[in-house]
Amino acid sequence: MTSKSIQQGEFFELEVDKDLRESSAYNDDLAPTKIKDRTWNKWNITALWVGMAICVPSYTLGGVLTSYFGLSVMEALLTILIANIILLVPLTLNAYPGTKYGIPFPVLLRSSFGIVGSNIPCLIRGFVACGWFGIQTMFGGLAIHLFLSAISSSWASLGGVGEVIGFFLFWALQMVVVVRGSESIKWLETLSAPLLLVVSIGLMIWAGGKVSFTEILATPANRPEDAGFWGYFFGGLTAMVGFWATLSLNIPDFSRYAKSQKDQVLGQIIGLPITMFFFAALGVVLTAASSTLVGETISDPISLIGKINSPFLVAIAMVLIIIATLSTNIAANVVSPTNDFQNIAPKLINHTRGALLTGLVGILLMSWELLKKMGWIESDVSVESMYSNWLLGYSSLLGPIAGIMIVDYFLIKRQNIDLVALYTPNGIYPAFNYAGLLAFAVPVVITIAALSVPSINWFYRYGWFTGAFTGAIVYFVLAKILASSANQTQAMPS
Fold it and tell me: HSE-up of 358 (CA within 13 Å, CB side)?
């Protein structure tokens, strides 16, 4: 009894038999999506991106570019728009095999890194997501704490303890949604997207009465007058591309549910660039308006709303922020590591265990902040520094993986993958694909070296781009060499 791949139109489906059910590389959650379950249309995928893009970190991006990258407000907003248009390239390309074959990100990586070797990029992607998961859960927990504080003075008196309780309440809420599966996520994103857009537009109109849009957009750059524009621009552009570098890898985790390639492409084009541009603009406007509203400049929307002297408005706003953070965190930071952890040992870790493992790692990564809020330890490390420093830098190392995946699928495999072999150890896909592993290692080593070698520091500053192109080129060359060597070996007489 053997499993086989069946083609229906543009889709492939796996007919599973005993051989794969007993395979150590297979479980039902990592199996290709059944064609009848590929139900997400372009509006569902648009809603997915609206739900992910409207979040606290997106709100602060304009301020990050003006404060840390020396751009003017208008330059910052255009940089965000351009970065997200650029991101559509790896996003739509890496989504293609997910839609065609119904496979998640870890299984697709087996083609370019090997059945076992795929765990290396999987865990790198997974731990980045767990870091973001912890940070977003902290934001969601704060929103729950402020909501309960607005309706109960006794809860407000809990202070940091209330924030910790809020963290775990928000954590549990996310686990419930994820464990229920893809249809639950689809429902959440589709429900929250229009609500979040309406609220965001309302906030923009409301803030328009407090500040002058023209004056805000005319805010000059804070870089030295004799400094050139392009160096600052490309530095900011790299950081903004790095913001969604994670999703440019694991987009197959969602595109495997798309009804067609047209739906996944249009959904991403409609949903990502405009939403990111608009919400970053909202963050710039509300940050500028904050001094008028509360007497001080605040770039965090949760803290800003928490200072408004109206318990009713605070409570309503916190409910909306909870929904926004929930829709972002589940899609962007829980789905991927849930699949990634399963890839380590599919027979031991299923979807539910993968989700709970993701949640546990997120708690551990935030443990220092939780202990600070309880008053049990003192530390100068803040969530903000974690967000603005190591996570963005770490994400820039994901560029090589994106480049390798695209080259492998489109240029090496020419969009043809053996579905059965992806779940079969010791088959045509090796345990370790050394072309993929070396192509990943080369730009990573150069990136690390660039931190201490001034002459090549540009390789680190523009890390996502340099890493993606270097990884792609090295992989193409090595894959061709290995393929040629294998063909020569097969051609030799025995």
Answer: 37
Given a contact cutoff of 8 angstroms between Cβ atoms, the answer to whether 379 and 372 are in contact is yes
Spatial distance between the Cα atoms of 276 and 268, rounded to a whole number of angstroms: 12
- What mean pLDDT comes out for the span 207-235? 81
Domains of the chain are 39-393 (1.10.4160.10)
Beta-carbon contacts of 331 under 8 Å, excluding residues fewer than 6 positions away, are: 48, 51, 52, 185, 189, 254
Helix (H) or strand (E) segment spanning residue 11:
strand 11-15
SS3 8: strand
Structure tokens at 59: 């709100």
Residue whose tokens read 């007497």: 295
Indicate if the pLDDT at residue 157 is higher than 60: yes
User: Are 352 and 29 spatial neighbours (Cβ–Cβ below 8 Å)?
Assistant: no
Whether the CB-CB separation of 7 and 227 falls below 8 Å is answered with no
| Per-residue pLDDT reduced to its tens digit, 320-376 | 888 888 988 998 899 999 999 999 999 999 999 999 999 999 999 888 889 988 988
d(CA 105, CA 345): 15
19: its two tokens:
């051989």
Q: Which pLDDT tens digit goes with each residue over 114-123? A: 999 999 999 9
Q: What is the pLDDT of residues 188-204, one digit of tens each?
A: 888 888 888 887 887 77
Q: How many CB atoms lie within 10 A of CB 483?
A: 12
Burial class (CB in 10 A: 0-12, 13-18, 19+), 60: buried
Report the C-alpha gap between 36 and 45 in whole angstroms. Answer: 17
Both tokens assigned to 386? 């974690």
